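Mods, move this if it's the wrong board.
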Amino acid sequence: MGEAKLVKLRGELQEKWKATELDMQIYKERDGVFILSEIPDLYQIIDDCLADINIILGNRFVGFMRKECDLLKKDIQNANNITTAWVDCQRDWIYLENIFTSAELRKAIQREA
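Not the wrong board. Structure tokens:
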């Protein structure tokens, strides 16, 4: 019974993870420029998935599927790291893009602009 419950939980977690989509939105109505949106929702999903996999890994009946669960946890952690790097890069790019597209800066450094 304990093992069957864990298999069911892992299956639900995998389905939740597979169904997760990245929400993108057009940035400043430009063609081909998209940014990641709904970032708090994405982090909530990742946190929920990490909590679920940790519950599974903490169960005493996990031994028969520990390798699969460890791989799933590693995938979720990688997604978390990639999302964090993506959000940091996106935030910096938006900040710098506003600076380098200003009219004053374009006048000051015409050739580089």
